């Protein structure tokens, strides 16, 4: 009886907390995920000479994994936990997948998932993250979001009508209601894109057909794919993902979050999922004030994000055509204005404490540079160089 009351109370709380802006934020997060990173997944599938069935199964697996973890973790923690498929991991596979039999690559995916779960549930990853001062994390987040803010305006020279419509829609609606500003940007931006010649692909709602591939474990695939995939996913995705939650003021139960994504990665690996992890960029869309002015009522944005992931996954790759045909300037502009609040807060936190300023600014600059070293993205190097600079400057003289 008490369980039923508790469950009903949880449902009533969610229905009370959900709002149209939070749903729009969740939708935008999914659009950003599929319009950019998914292209890299498809490129990796092509480089690995996967069949159409294997490629569709891969899309299904990462979509279902991201959707389930988004929904379950967000409802469980009442925190906007946004997960996604590993973009740097997919980039790694573009150059390595063709060097190994597909079954061996699947075995490497399983290995990376198991190790991720072990690192997460052990608390080791959380302890490493706890060493990094908060302004350094804010600097990394600011560096990640900076490119989106710049791209929103850089594309004015490419598609002035579309980008201009997005900016005008955002500012005009925000003048009256900040909650619906992103919706206003979409409301003007999409018609402007259609007027300038964009044609959305037709949607064929066909059920996805996941394909099982039996994992084969080889030393070559473990060294060539598994370990590098583990490192780049933890460093370039999970670290900044935890940082986004931390910077936004949310508790970060790292054992639960990292461990659960590791389990999801492991279970879905035989169907093609290379890695499920915490998101950073799309998380910032759902954790910012545009999702809801009250931080306690932003978790429905992540739940909505998960639901949209599940819809795309359920109907396979057919819905991808809609996301992939949306013009780049429209996506960049809407994402840019949606992230303005998060970017402003991150920049403020980066420069707030004089004692942390050098390290935080170095973290910001390294991350914003987009540098990639040894296959690891700039977010990791921003954390590393910023933390090293901080302790070098602030270390007490003997």
Automatic annotation (TrEMBL):
One of its GO terms (cellular component) is plasma membrane. Coiled coil: none annotated. The chain crosses the membrane at residues 20-45, 57-76, 102-121, 128-150, 156-173, 180-197, 217-236, 301-324, 330-348, 360-384. The keyword Membrane applies. It holds the Pfam family BenE. The keyword Protein biosynthesis does not apply. One of its GO terms (molecular function) is benzoate transmembrane transporter activity. Keywords: Membrane, Transmembrane, Transmembrane helix. It comes from the Bacteria. InterPro entries: Benzoate_Transporter. NCBIfam families: benE (TIGR00843). This is Benzoate membrane transport protein. It comes from Saccharothrix carnea.
């Amino acid at each position: 009886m008490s369980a039923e009351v508790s469950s009903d109370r949880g449902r009533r709380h969610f229905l009370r907390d959900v709002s149209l802006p939070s749903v729009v934020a969740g939708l935008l997060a999914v659009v950003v995920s599929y319009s950019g990173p998914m292209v890299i997944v498809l490129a990796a599938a092509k480089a690995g000479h996967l069949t159409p069935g294997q490629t569709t199964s891969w899309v299904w697996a990462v979509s279902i994994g991201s959707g389930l973890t988004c929904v379950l973790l967000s409802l469980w923690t009442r925190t906007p936990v946004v997960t996604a498929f590993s973009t740097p991991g997919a980039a790694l596979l573009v150059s390595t997948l063709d060097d190994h039999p597909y079954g061996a690559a699947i075995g490497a995916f399983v290995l990376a998932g198991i190790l991720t779960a072990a690192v997460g549930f052990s608390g080791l990853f959380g302890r490493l993250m706890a060493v990094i001062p908060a302004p350094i994390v804010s600097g990394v987040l600011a560096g990640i979001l900076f490119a989106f803010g710049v791209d929103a305006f850089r594309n004015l020279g490419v598609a002035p009508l579309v980008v201009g419509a997005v900016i005008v829609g955002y500012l005009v609606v925000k003048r009256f209601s900040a909650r619906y500003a992103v919706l206003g940007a979409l409301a003007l931006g999409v018609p402007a894109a259609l007027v300038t010649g964009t044609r959305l692909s037709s949607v064929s709602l066909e059920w996805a057909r996941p394909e099982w591939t039996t994992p084969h474990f080889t030393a070559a695939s473990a060294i060539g794919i598994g370990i590098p995939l583990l490192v780049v996913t933890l460093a370039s995705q999970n670290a900044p993902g935890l940082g986004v939650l931390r910077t936004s003021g949310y508790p970060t139960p790292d054992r639960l979050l990292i461990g659960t994504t590791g389990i999801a990665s492991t279970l879905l690996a035989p169907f093609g999922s290379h890695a499920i992890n915490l998101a950073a960029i799309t998380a910032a869309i759902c954790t910012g004030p545009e999702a809801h002015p009250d931080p306690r009522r932003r978790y429905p944005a992540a739940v909505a994000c998960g639901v949209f992931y599940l819809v795309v996954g359920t109907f396979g790759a057919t819905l991808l055509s809609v996301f992939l045909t949306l013009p780049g300037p429209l996506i960049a502009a809407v994402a840019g204005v949606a992230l303005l609040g998060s970017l402003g807060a991150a920049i403020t936190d980066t420069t707030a404490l004089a004692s942390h300023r050098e390290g935080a600014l170095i973290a910001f600059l390294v991350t914003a540079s987009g540098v990639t070293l040894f296959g690891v993205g700039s977010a990791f190097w921003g954390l590393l160089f910023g933390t090293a600079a901080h302790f070098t400057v602030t270390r007490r003289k003997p």
